[in-house]
Design goal:
Elements: H1 2-13, H2 16-23, H3 27-41, E1 46-48, E2 53-55, H4 57-85, E3 89-95, H5 97-114, E4 118-124, E5 138-143, E6 152-158, E7 161-165, H6 167-173, E8 187-190, E9 196-203, E10 212-217, E11 220-222, H7 225-233, E12 238-242, H8 247-251, E13 256-258, E14 262-264, E15 269-274, H9 282-294
Parallel strand pairs: 3-4, 3-5, 8-11, 8-12
Antiparallel strand pairs: 1-2, 5-15, 6-15, 7-12, 7-13, 9-10, 9-14
Helix pairs in contact: 1-2, 1-3, 1-4, 2-3
Length: about 300
């Protein structure tokens, strides 16, 4: 590429010396560039004399074509650099349905306002979409562990799971004071095995030393936590859901915690996952940094990441 630029300058300035001065090189260096180019093409591009350097007919034709190519290349370089400095383009983000509603929905509004040149597409599904096959840019994963891969993962927060019910339900069906009391209540559970699940609890004050496991039956089970939350709000039972899904309901007293002195084990962590490329597109960097800022974990980087 440097040889081409040197050739164009020599033709435009009519002098190897002037071209060398412009490029900050020696006259011999520029002359060797032209000779190397002529040998590669097998064509004489310049007629040289002690007083004059003039392009041949082939040299003039080549200068016109090379000039257009260099201009296009320069335009492409500028466009890429601008795109990196100013995030823009279409961004595809996948996340579980519940996390999309509870986390991405409120954050996406602020992100769209800050980066108006990025169009955000959210793929809310429980399936682990493949980055390449589904052209995914960023993924949110809720899991207790991540397998090895070439992707980069950032831990956003621990996802604490709890039991929650509407005050009206507890007034009608009675308070829950011990884990064993759950057996007499209507439980709203997600991801059960044919309507049954095991809940592991331990008293917070005893640092988990009295851990107990209860095999419980769901009065209503669903494929996502949002449905369980809605049934709980309607007074339909006690829902086992992530605390982040009901934060607003707790603040508004629409739901209250059940067995709040007990910790429920088996909770996961929330990760932001993106490709591990050296030159990360600016749109992905913008979204990553926005979420890291929102969760207060700026610059915290972890690997390995989810393989899909």
């Amino acid at each position: 590429m440097s040889d081409l630029r040197a050739f164009c300058l020599v033709v435009d300035l009519g002098s190897i010396t002037a071209a060398a001065r412009t490029l900050g090189e020696t006259k011999g260096s520029v002359s060797r560039r032209i000779t190397r180019l002529e040998h590669a093409l097998g064509v004489e591009l310049l007629r040289r004399s002690p007083r004059l350097v003039q392009a041949t007919e082939d040299g003039l034709a080549y200068r016109m074509r090379v000039g257009r190519a260099l201009e296009l290349l320069e335009d492409a370089n500028v466009a890429v650099q601008q795109a990196r400095s100013r995030p823009r383009g279409h961004l595809r983000v996948t996340a579980p349905f519940d996390l999309g509603l509870s986390i991405l929905a409120p954050l996406s509004a602020g992100f769209a306002e800050r980066f108006p040149e990025i169009s955000l597409e959210l793929l809310l599904t429980e399936a682990l979409l493949d980055f390449d096959a589904h052209q995914v840019d960023v993924a949110l994963r809720a899991t207790s562990s991540l397998p090895d891969s070439s992707l980069i993962a950032h831990k956003l927060q621990h996802i604490e799971v709890g039991l929650f019910a509407a005050p009206s339900y507890l007034r009608k069906h009675g308070a829950v004071r011990r884990p064993e009391d759950l057996e007499g209540h209507r439980l709203l559970l997600a991801q059960t095995a044919r309507g049954h699940a095991t809940i592991a609890l331990s008293a917070r004050a005893r640092d988990g030393r009295d851990r107990a496991e209860l095999r419980v039956r769901a009065a209503i089970s669903a494929s996502d936590f949002s449905f369980c939350r809605e049934v709980a709000l309607a007074g339909g039972g006690i829902a086992l859901v992530p605390a982040i899904n009901v934060r607003g309901d707790l603040d508004a007293k629409r739901l209250v915690p059940v067995l709040k002195d007990y910790a429920i084990h088996g909770a996961a962590s929330l990760y932001l996952v993106h490709p591990g490329t050296r030159f990360l597109p600016s749109k992905i960097r913008a979204f990553r940094d926005y979420l890291l800022d929102a969760f207060g974990v700026q610059g915290r980087r972890e690997a390995p990441a989810a393989a899909r």
